Description:
The protein is mainly beta.
Amino acid sequence: MAxxxxxxxxxxxxxxxxxxxxxLLASGAAxxxxxxxxxxxxxxxxxxxxxxxxxxxxxxQTQDIDIYCPPQAPYYWGGxxxxxxxxxxxxxxxxxxxxxxxxxxKISNTALSxxxxxxxxxxxxxxxxGACTGNLVKVADPKCPISxxxxxxxxxxxxxxxxxxxxxxTSGSNITTYSCTDANPLGHTCITCSG
Length: 195
């Protein structure tokens, strides 16, 4: 039985839409964040070693996880990726409890069935602060050139979000790097190496 011209045209449009959607999904998958880049999109993490945590959540289950960097690469540079068996989930990194050696995540399964996941972080044998032999100190925003800016959020169903960025100050041959945030409601806070 031959198709009517209008029906054939609609079928051609539908197939073109499906092909376009598949192409967009495939190209989106190729743009995934990289745990071996600073804050997932920045500079390559030197000597990157990945560390992963995998589990399965029951429907409507929420879980807090900590992923620690291994002894041979003890420094977390903020890069991570996740994969889930269902798109129905919420994952947030808690920067308040993160430190230089581990990452903390809150994961919620919003699917109506179990949802398996893997979260992978990137770690380095080199600290983000280079060869800092002093202490890390908090300072006011030095207002130097900004790089690696991103927004981080925590909490559900109404997340609280803040900006995190890196500033690099140059004075002659001295270069000082600051990791800054506006999470503090009283003003920007930055951290740098004191020694």
